[in-house]
Amino acid sequence: MKGPYTLGIDVGTSATKVLLLDNSGEWEMGSWPTSEGLWDNLQHWLSRRGESVVRVGITGHGPSAIVIRNGEVIGSKISWFDDFLEGCEREVDNNHILTGSRAWVPSRLAQWEKENGPIGDGVPLQLKDLYNWELTGVVGRDTRSMRGYSGEGNFFYPDEVIGRVNTAGSKTSGISIGAEVICGCDDLTAGVLGLNANQGDLFNLANTSEHVGLVGGEPIEGLSWLPPIGRLPSLCYLSTSTGGKTLAEKFNVQPSAEAVKNFISQLENEKNSGISSDVKGQAWEAIRELNQPIKVVRNMFPSGEMLIGGGLALIPQIVESRGAILRAGQEVSVLGVAKLAQRPLAVIFGAGKVGRGFLAQLLLRSGWRIHFVDSNLELVKALKDGSYAISNLATGEVDVISEYTVSSDEWRLQEASLILTSLGANGLANWAQSVGDFDREIDIILAENHPAPAKLVREHITSSKVGVAQAQVLRSCIEPTAQQVAEFGHLTVQVQDHWTLPLDADALTQPELVSCVPGFEAKPNFAVELTRKLYTYNAINAAVCYLGAERGYVWLSDAANDSEITDLATQVGVESSAALVAEFGFDEDEQRDWSGMALAKYQDVTIRDPIERNARDPIRKLGLHDRILGPLHLCIKHGLPHDSLIQTMKSALNYREPGDPAAIQLGTFVDEFGTWGALQKVALGIDESLANYLGK
Description:
This protein has 696 residues and is an alpha/beta fold. 40% of the residues lie in helices and 19% in strands. Strand 16, helix 11 (353-365) and strand 17 form a beta-alpha-beta unit. Helix 6 packs across helix 7.
């Protein structure tokens, strides 16, 4: 393992567990009796690794009653296992449905006031909130941990950063100053996260006590129900009065999962004469009794496989007897809160120039973790060997990127909060066929140069839980100079100083997650936005590259700065913009700005983009609804001038590039059918009036 690390802390009733999680998903756990305290033991366990902790998440037992007023803890601290005072029973609120198996937060607060006096302007908290305060000096809490309580103020989402470890907190804990601390969550929610359970999954947290429940869904009579909070789904569950502690008492062994596991192993050892047959019979009966309430609760939910985790889950006989799927052991809750605290992971399929030089940079600037997947093994090896650089063409700034992981397979998909692709048309089709469907909510953003990437992907990924959103890549990402290769390596990408990625808002399942990335601009009615980009940026590009090719230019920027080509491209922008305004009602000034930005991009001499790359595949680009004929037909429809678009169309028909199969094919069509016949062949349904410009 290597840093940076996310630290998870789980303060349980009998044991405290701590866990370091790195960016590759590897983790290391330590534990000690809760009675020994937290901070000194943590500092000793972390040692120098505390300097590499960048985020912290804490969970703990509850419900409790702890009150902070004027920067100090006042009164007594009441834990969930403390004796409850009669007469302090209170109703639960905040849309929580809770069974009467224990005293919930409102009742514990009533007990606190009976013992200590009015809370007044104090802030009631849970145990994990106390530890957060000791690290950061910030008083924060979440509604799910404050079960049934409807007070106001100091509330955060469980995964929300409430503050950073301050000097005093660092000295106390050994965690680096400035590490971000999230609000954290209750141990039940942390356990569900540790199981990696998704919407619709059944779960069994098998520890000192046990919980059986369902992720998501509506309340079920007789069960506790917690409403969704932030990005966390609702939980419907019931706790049992039995668990590892009960089994240990029946076996007359120490109350630990290891002791219970060892005892069961002895039971199965036929050669062991140290345990009488009567004791064996009683022990197996105890296991059956332990499973009975689990079975009863499980039958209250829809049928399905049940995920299990916790100390008892390390005992194969218990997992097997319940027909469950093992997902985690004793680490389940501390791993869950560490995952909650860890920055979200984006998996980018395609580590090419756009993937490295645009998508990854936007996400990394927002604090995301990045994992590249690419089938090019040489590229994967090069990325694993070190870092790569992004050079901003406008400012000259160089951003060296090293905080990522990379592989040639999809092993991290289950961890991903977001998936992005930049694969190219052929690569996207193969990927969509191979990746399979998903059984959880997740969004896929397609940063592809393809006319209908979302439609293509939807042929293979059909789940309604998955959002498939097309994006517009408006940043140029090009090859490095020889000097940059010598200085930073061959993975260097030169990029345009453009920082926005428009994408389809209507296709997203988790728009609030995507909106957290500055630069990701989710736009409604995205089909119109795509048309706008195609008929503005791409139309102007076509004017520059095809007339530029006729005049023998090699580089796009050289052609765009030719005065006659500039005039043509400017007029194409005027004609296309007028058509877009007439058809879709875009703002004229805004559309004029779009055209200006497009031409300025192509005139940027720092972007050495070859005309051959831009002009490639003229048959596709002469399609009926593509960059030339699309705006041209709108001009005809609305009776608008279109002479410059006609000239661009003629230049495209004349394009011949020996290394471009489509250009060769187009030339064959022209030779065989004439220019009008060739155009009819590649653009079915073309307006007959255009024949007048070409001759039949």
